[in-house]
Structures are given as structure tokens and as C-alpha cells.
Design brief:
By secondary structure, the chain is mainly α. About 75% of the residues lie in helices and about 0% in strands.
Length: about 550
């Protein structure tokens, strides 16, 4: 027991900042979101109209949840639960991989296994650590809801649903760490699982059976394949039924038992899915250091581009649905305008909001390029490249150039997907220029995050990963949710996304974009120039 406590304390101490940001940030988002729901949909008639539109059009349900009445708590649960569960799932899977597969990659797991702790006890400590993190998240969210005046029973059911879905995702992250030889592979499949759970729940809601009064929906079978779906089945503030949570708990228990079995028999550093063997000879792309940087980041580019393409398609293919929604419920247009800070038309506002999401995806892709530079340094492979006639300044400059290229590709792919989806719009010719401009408007903010990540890498290399992801996460919340939740203007302005130009009415103010562009280029240049004298910092 003493050894378990020591390992648990080490994990808590190591994650104290990251988990505090995840847990407290998510709880604060829940608190602010409930306040915004009261302000925007304070009247029962407003909520009836929104639910009627959502159930009639169905596509809106993919991005929200299962309607279950017009009471304050039930309506807030419909709007917010799936999004909060998504954040809890990402927190849990990252935690699981960070303390298992990433430790094996760095060689630290082998050192721990050589002590009396052995190979199983560290995994046990990670399970306990992850469960405690999800308990804290569920409890704080429940308290945030109660602080907003919602019923205590329903609030704790909501918190329990968040907790249990997070534990299910934690178990999958631990299993993914057994499957793949690298933390990148394990994180990649874990994130895909969380997003798939979110989408399956959405598809189940959209394909569900509505009630006669268009205030409730009985989800279809795809929702039963998602831990988030089981969380919604609790019917917080209405049924308050905790029984559905037994299924994701059983799923988590089975996966964790399997993880312990695999951990006990497999070799240290091995995986169920063997690493792909490389070619005997390198291709022409790998004939230069720039080609190597490009090759190392192609998988990153493909994954984020796929998400951007899907978002771009939705931005324009749903235009007829959005037109109808805005006609039936004017609050939809008001919410979209508040999100972008502009008096745009409904189609312009919808495109701007969705391409704001594309901007976040492109920024994440750029940040991963910067993080890849840190990983190459930490693993010692960068030293091999720098042992050749490749100068350090040129080496980091190539990462900066590749980061810029991937941003452009992600945005361009989203723009082309938006054009492909514009065929269903009432006036596709007028929508196409708006799509191009909305995509291009995200470039300056993305360059800021690329420059910031490389700047942190140059001066505080070991902080590259937490600072990079924290910066884009906080900025996305402030820039996307801040205007909707009526955060102070100075706080919203801290997000580069808040300064992205918004195409509206044929005129676009690029002042903020030019400032962001200058800041991004200056940060990138400073990072590259500072590599002249910095010592390599290997290790985690």
C-alpha cells in the first residue's frame, strides 16, 4: 500500500497543473454556460421553440444532445452535457497514455519495474489517479450547477454521468496504450474513440423517435454504443436514473482487467500491434532534412485535415437547415452573431462559426508540428540530424515552414469541402467567396500558436507540450464561448481567435488579422533565431 501511495502522489504532483486546468476549467465552463442559458433562453416559450426546431431539423441534435423537456435543468442538460463529456473524455485518455505508453517510450517505466513496485503497481496507480481525477471533475461540475440554482439531485446525477463516461474513456486509453508501440499512436486512436463516441451519440439522437409534443426524443440504437449516450440516458433533472451508468462501468472494468492481464505477460516496450517495418531504402523525400521534417508530420496533417474537411462540409451543407431554424427561432441568429461579434446574415454567421472551429483544428495541427520538434529532441533523434552539416537555426526553421504549410493545407481543404457542400445552399454563388474568406481569416491566429509553441520550445523546451495545448484550449474556449457566455471583453480579447476577421456584408475588417499575422511571424522568427546558442535538452 505504501508503494501505491508513493506512485499515486508522484502522478498527482506531476499532473497538478494540467489536471487543475482541465477540471477547474471545465467546471467554470459549465457554470458560465448555465448562466448564459438562463440569459438567452430564460422564457419557457423560447425553450419550446428551440426544442421544436432542433427536433424538426434533427441535424442540430448531433451537436447538442437528447431533448427531454423544457425545465431549466433538462434544457441545460440537452445543450451542454455531451460537450462537457467530450472534454472529460479527452482529459482521461491523455492521462492514461501519459502515464503508461509514454513512460515506456521514455524508458522510465523500465526503471520503475526494476524496483519492488514491479510492473503492475504503476498501472494500478494510474487507474486510481484517473478515477480520482474523474470523481473530482464530476463533483465540481455538480457543485457548479448547484451554484447556479439547479436542483441538487439532478446536478449530482449530471456529475455522476460525466464521471462514469470519463472512467470508460480512461479504460480505453489504458487499453490503447497496450495496443500501440508509441504514445502518438495510442493518443491518436484514443482521441478517435472519444470523437466517435460523441458522433455515435449524435447520430443516435438525430435518428431517434420524437414525442408528439416535440419536446422529447427517444434515441436510436447508435446511442447505446457510446459512453456519452449512456450518460444522457440518466435523464438528469427528469428521471434521475443512475442505472444506465452500470453499463459503461462494466465496460471500463472489463477493459481494465484486460489491461492488467496484458501488462503482466507482454515484454516491456512491446505492443499488441507491432510497429510497421520501414523500407530498406529511403525515398527521395528523405534525401534532405526538410524532407525528414515533412515526413515526420504527414500523419498529423492527414488526421487534422480529415476533421477540417468534415467541418467545412457541415458549414455549407446545413445552410438550408440553419435558414429554417433562424426563421422559426430568432434566438439562433442572435447566438451566432454574439459568437462572432458581428451583425452578419444567418449564412455568414454560420460559416464564420464553423470556420472558427476549422481555425482551432488548424492551430492544433500546427502545435503538433512544434511538439514534434520537442519530441525529436527529447528522444535524442534530433541530435543525430544536428550532428550532420544541418545548423540548428535551419533545423527549427524547417519545422516553422512545415508548420505554416500544414496550416494552409488544412484551411484550403476545409474551404474546398465548404464549396463542395455549398451546392445545397439557396445561393451557392454568393456563399463561395464567403467560404474562402472565412478560411483565410483563420491563418493569422494559427500562425500565432505555431510561433508561440516554437518560442516556448526554444526557451523552455520541457514546457512545450503543456503550454502549447493549454494555450490553444484556453484560447478556443475564450474565443468561441466567451462572447456567447458574455465574458469580459478584455478576457475574450486575450484569444487570438477573437481577432480573426469575420466576413460580413461584403466588408471585412482585417485590422486584427494583420496584428495577429505580425505577432505570429515575429514569434516564429524569434524562436528560430534563438536556436543559435541553445543547448539540446534531452529527456522528458
Amino acid at each position: 500500500m505504501t508503494r501505491l501511495v508513493v506512485l499515486l502522489r508522484q502522478r498527482i504532483r506531476r499532473d497538478r497543473l494540467q489536471l487543475a486546468l482541465w477540471i477547474v476549467g471545465t467546471a467554470l465552463l459549465a457554470y458560465a454556460s448555465i448562466t448564459a442559458v438562463y440569459d438567452t433562453y430564460g422564457e419557457e416559450q423560447d425553450r419550446r421553440e428551440i426544442l421544436g426546431v432542433a427536433i424538426a431539423t434533427r441535424t442540430i441534435l448531433v451537436f447538442r444532445g437528447t431533448p427531454n423537456g423544457v425545465d431549466d435543468g433538462a434544457f441545460a442538460f440537452f445543450l451542454l452535457f455531451a460537450w462537457l463529456a467530450l472534454m472529460g473524455g479527452l482529459m482521461s485518455t491523455f492521462l492514461a497514455v501519459r502515464h503508461t505508453r509514454a513512460e515506456e517510450e521514455q524508458g522510465r517505466a523500465e526503471s520503475i519495474a526494476a524496483t519492488p513496485a514491479g510492473r503492475i503497481l504503476p498501472t494500478t496507480a494510474t487507474v486510481v489517479h484517473g478515477v480520482l481525477a474523474n470523481v473530482a471533475l464530476g463533483l465540481l461540475i455538480a457543485l457548479a450547477l448547484i451554484a447556479n440554482g439547479l436542483d441538487a439531485t439532478g446536478s449530482f446525477v449530471w456529475g455522476a454521468a460525466i464521471m462514469v463516461s470519463g472512467i470508460a474513456f480512461l479504460a480505453f486509453g489504458l487499453f490503447a496504450a497496450q495496443l500501440f508501440r508509441t504514445s502518438r499512436g495510442a493518443n491518436g486512436i484514443s482521441v478517435a474513440f472519444v470523437l466517435a463516441a460523441y458522433l455515435l451519440r449524435g447520430i443516435g439522437d438525430a435518428a431517434g423517435t420524437p414525442s408528439d409534443d416535440l419536446l422529447q426524443v427517444t434515441p436510436a440504437w447508435p446511442s447505446w454504443l457510446s459512453p456519452i449516450g449512456y450518460g444522457q440516458f440518466t435523464g438528469a433533472f427528469v428521471e434521475n436514473d443512475l442505472t444506465p451508468l452500470l453499463i459503461p462501468l462494466a465496460f471500463a472494468a472489463a477493459l481494465i482487467a484486460l489491461v492488467f492481464g496484458l501488462q503482466a505477460v507482454r515484454d516491456q516496450g512491446a505492443s499488441l500491434i507491432a510497429g510497421r517495418a520501414g523500407r530498406a531504402t529511403a525515398g527521395p523525400v528523405l534525401s534532405s532534412s526538410f524532407g525528414l521534417v515533412w515526413r515526420l508530420n504527414t500523419s498529423i496533417l492527414l488526421s487534422w485535415t480529415a476533421g477540417a474537411v468534415a467541418t467545412g462540409l457541415l458549414a455549407t451543407s446545413l445552410s438550408s437547415v440553419v435558414d429554417q431554424a433562424a426563421t422559426d427561432a430568432p434566438q439562433v441568429l442572435e447566438t451566432l452573431r454574439r459568437a462572432i461579434g458581428s451583425e452578419a446574415s444567418i449564412e455568414e454567421a454560420f460559416v464564420a462559426v464553423f470556420y472558427g472551429i476549422v481555425g482551432v483544428l488548424a492551430a492544433c495541427c500546427a502545435i503538433q508540428v512544434g511538439i514534434r520538434a520537442r519530441q525529436e529532441e527529447a528522444h535524442g533523434t534530433a541530435e543525430l540530424v544536428l550532428g550532420t552539416p544541418v545548423p540548428r537555426v535551419r533545423w527549427l526553421l524547417e519545422y516553422w515552414i512545415v508548420g505554416t504549410i500544414v496550416i494552409v493545407i488544412v484551411l484550403a481543404a476545409a474551404a474546398l469541402a465548404g464549396i463542395a457542400g455549398a451546392g445545397s445552399a439557396s445561393d451557392p454563388e454568393s456563399l463561395i467567396p464567403n467560404v474562402f474568406e472565412a478560411a483565410a481569416a483563420q491563418l493569422p491566429a494559427c500562425l500565432v500558436f505555431l510561433g508561440l509553441t516554437l518560442l516556448v520550445f526554444a526557451f523552455l523546451p520541457r514546457a512545450t507540450i503543456p503550454v502549447g495545448w493549454t494555450a490553444v484550449g484556453v484560447a478556443a474556449i475564450l474565443g468561441t464561448w466567451g462572447p456567447i457566455l458574455q465574458f469580459p471583453e478584455w478576457l475574450v480579447d486575450l484569444s487570438p481567435f477573437a481577432h480573426s476577421p469575420v466576413p460580413a456584408g461584403g466588408e471585412t475588417d482585417w485590422t486584427g488579422g494583420f496584428w495577429m499575422l505580425a505577432i505570429g511571424l515575429a514569434a516564429g522568427a524569434a524562436a528560430v533565431w534563438s536556436m543559435r546558442r541553445r543547448e539540446l535538452a534531452s529527456g522528458g
